[in-house]
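Below is a filled-in request sheet from our internal design queue. Each sheet records the structural input a requester submitted and the sequence that came back. We keep these sheets so that new team members can see what a complete request looks like end to end.

REQUESTER: design group, bay 2
PRIORITY: normal
MODE: inverse folding
CHAIN LENGTH: 372
BACKBONE (tokenized):
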């Protein structure tokens, strides 16, 4: 089979495209399929220009490509899908879970998702179970354009809580400040913080939040606790809670194989993006071109394709971010399967449906893909 991979770029994840490709190839190698498929690729910038992605897909399909894989948002997938429907070929979308689809199902497209919005609902439930009802929401200007910011507010309201303070940091990194948030928490110490930041923006948040919390708690989204960045961030002086799709610390046999295989190439090569590539290879295998109903044993556990919407479904994990006593930086610990994942998945479906017929702004970049 001929397989094309559409690779984006990001200044905060400079190895992103290499990680996806390496994860895909190493997974094939592990299955004994090294050299079995013809693999080609093309760069798609930050995956925000739908017409550019369309042109690449069209050229690949004209040259006899059977499967195209790309890290992009569901809106881009919907834009290019007519090409796949008309040719009968397969589109596999690597998805952060930070966008909402506008469609019910695309016949020739399947989505391998990191379930970012589901993790957001799960961590809100954890905060509610911890006894909090009032929340301060804090995010970067960039993160405000993705769906976890909406999911936080919707989930809190559904569960009987309130967002009582909103704090969005400046677009310019030089203007970054948490002063308004700190001042509010000093007056309302029983308020918990719901945060969504990624990359260097997460680093800025936790650096500036040192000594901020007092008696309150911080809860973060899945990319806020991504280990690629987390392990570089100095411990802020307090532990905080998160929900994640995957961690290098997950103790299951499939994850040990994945982590050992990828990190033999380079330390840190086992990450969220190489995981997406690894899973794509698992789903394709020898020559799978229809993924409906498929189940794989992934490094993150059991992953299945929901035939009703074409998205993967998997468990998510609670985790605690604490101090690595060796480095003094942050580390992800105490992973535990979130027991209410499936009920939160139903809640997320309702959140998605509520926005499908509403004009709601969003960044088009694939999440975490930035040029500057």
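RETURNED SEQUENCE:
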């Amino acid at each position: 089979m001929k397989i094309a991979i559409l690779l984006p770029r990001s200044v905060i994840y400079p190895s992103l495209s290499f990680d996806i490709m390496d994860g895909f190839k190493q997974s094939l190698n592990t299955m004994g399929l090294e050299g079995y498929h013809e693999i080609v690729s093309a760069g798609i910038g930050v995956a925000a220009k739908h017409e550019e992605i369309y042109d690449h897909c069209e050229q690949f399909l004209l040259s006899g490509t059977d499967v195209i894989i790309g890290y992009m948002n569901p809106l881009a997938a919907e834009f290019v899908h007519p090409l796949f429907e008309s040719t009968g070929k397969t589109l596999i979308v690597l998805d952060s879970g930070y966008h909402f689809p506008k469609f019910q199902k695309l016949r020739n497209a399947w989505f391998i998702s990191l379930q970012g919005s589901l993790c957001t609902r799960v961590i809100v439930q954890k905060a509610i179970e911890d006894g909090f009802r009032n929340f301060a929401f804090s995010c970067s200007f960039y993160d405000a354009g993705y769906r976890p910011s909406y999911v936080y507010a919707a989930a809190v309201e559904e569960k009987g809580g309130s967002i009582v303070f909103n704090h969005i940091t400046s677009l310019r990194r030089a203007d970054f400040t948490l002063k308004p948030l700190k001042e509010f928490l000093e007056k309302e110490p029983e308020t918990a913080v719901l945060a969504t930041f990624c990359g260097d923006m997460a680093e800025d948040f936790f650096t500036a939040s040192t000594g901020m919390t007092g008696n309150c708690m911080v809860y973060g989204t899945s990319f806020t606790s991504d280990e690629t960045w987390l392990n570089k961030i100095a411990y802020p002086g307090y532990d905080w809670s998160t929900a994640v799709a995957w961690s290098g610390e997950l103790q299951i046999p499939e994850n040990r194989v994945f982590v050992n295989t990828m990190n033999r190439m380079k330390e840190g090569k086992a990450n969220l993006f190489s995981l997406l590539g690894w899973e794509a290879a698992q789903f394709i295998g020898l020559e799978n071109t229809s993924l409906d109903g498929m189940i794989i044993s992934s490094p993150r556990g059991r992953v299945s394709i929901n035939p009703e919407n074409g998205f993967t479904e998997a468990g998510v994990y609670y985790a605690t971010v604490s101090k690595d006593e060796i480095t003094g930086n942050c580390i992800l610990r105490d992973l535990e399967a979130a027991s209410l994942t499936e009920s939160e998945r139903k809640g997320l479906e309702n959140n998605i449906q509520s926005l499908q017929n509403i004009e709601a702004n969003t960044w088009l970049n694939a999440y975490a893909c930035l040029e500057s």
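SHEET NOTES:
- The chain has two domains: 2-115+249-314, 117-244+324-356.
- The chain has a mean pLDDT of 95.
FILED BY: M.R.
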